[in-house]
Amino acid sequence: MAKLYFHFSTMNAGKSTVLLQAAHNYRERGMVPYLLTAQFDNRAGEGRIASRIGIGQAADTFNPDDDLFARIEKRQAEGPVACVFIDEAQFLSKEQVWQLARAVDDLDVPIMCYGLRVDFRGELFPGSATLLALADEMREVRTICHCGKKATMVVRRDAEGRALSEGAQVQIGGNETYVSLCRKHWREAVGDG
Q1: Quick one: pLDDT at residue 153?
Q2: Residue 186: inside a domain, yes or no?
Q3: In the chain, what is the straight-line distance between the N-terminal and C-terminal CA atoms, in Å?
Q4: Which domain holds residue 87?
Q5: Is 25 part of any domain?
Q6: pLDDT tens for each residue of 41-75
Q7: Is residue 172 part of a domain?
C-alpha cells in the first residue's frame, strides 16, 4: 500500500544522503525510482541531488507552478515507477503537497519527501506544514548541536557570522550560511532569552 512519507530535519543532517541511499536500494533491486528536486536550489548543479559527502544523482526539477500529480502520472505512463523521491520538500507549495497525496491515493505510488521542518526564524515552511498535516508517516533525520543535544533549529548567519532574525524565508545556502542548533542555543544566538 502506497504512503506519503515526510523525512524532516535541520540543515546538515544528511537528508539528501538518506534519499540517495534509498533510491539506490530501489535501483539495486531492479526497480525504478523517480527523483525530483526544487529547480531554484541548484547548488549541486541544475537537476541534481547531491550530498555533502560527495554522492549525487540526476533528478527532474519542480517549480512552484508545477502540477506534481500530472508530472507523476505522465512519468508513470512512460514506464513503471516504484517510488517517487522529492528533495528540498520544504519548497513545495500547499497545493503541491495535496497533489502528492492524491498521487499516493489515486496512482498507488509511494512518495518520500525530504526537507527542512522549520526556517531560521523557527517557523514552518508552507510545504513542511502541509506535509506534517498530510503525511502517512513522518521520520526525523537527526543531527546534533555543538553541545551534543539534538539540533531542531537552524540559524542563518550574515557575512560577519552574526545570527539573523529577519529576512526572506528562503535563501539558498549551505554551511557558510546556516548552522543547526538545539532550541536553547538557537534562542541564545537570536537573542531570545
Answers
A1: 86
A2: no
A3: 47
A4: 4-142
A5: yes
A6: 656 557 777 777 777 788 999 998 999 999 999 99
A7: no
Domain total of the chain: 1
pLDDT value of position 193 = 59
Q: What is the pLDDT of residues 135-172, one digit of tens each?
A: 999 999 988 999 999 999 888 777 777 766 665 555 55
Ranking 1-10, 19-28, 39-48, 79-88 by mean pLDDT, the lowest is: 39-48
Q: Which residues pair with 9 in a beta bridge?
A: 116
Q: Which of 138, 191, 135, 136 is nearest to 163 (CA)?
A: 191
Give the three-state DSSP class for 51.
coil
Q: Which of 28, 88, 160, 166 is catalytic?
A: 88
CATH number of the domain residue 43 falls in: 3.40.50.300
For residue 1, with 0-12 CB atoms within 10 Å meaning exposed, 13-18 middle and 19 or more buried, which class applies? exposed
How many angstroms separate the CA atoms of 108 and 104, rounded? 5
pTM of the entire structure?
0.86
Q: How far, CA to CA in Å, does 77 sit from each of 23, 103, 173?
A: 20, 13, 36
Whether the CB-CB separation of 175 and 12 falls below 8 Å is answered with yes
Contact by Cβ (8 Å): 141, 16: no
Q: H helices of the chain, where?
A: 15-28, 68-78, 94-107, 126-134, 183-190
Residue 60 included in any domain = yes
Q: Is 88 a catalytic residue?
A: yes
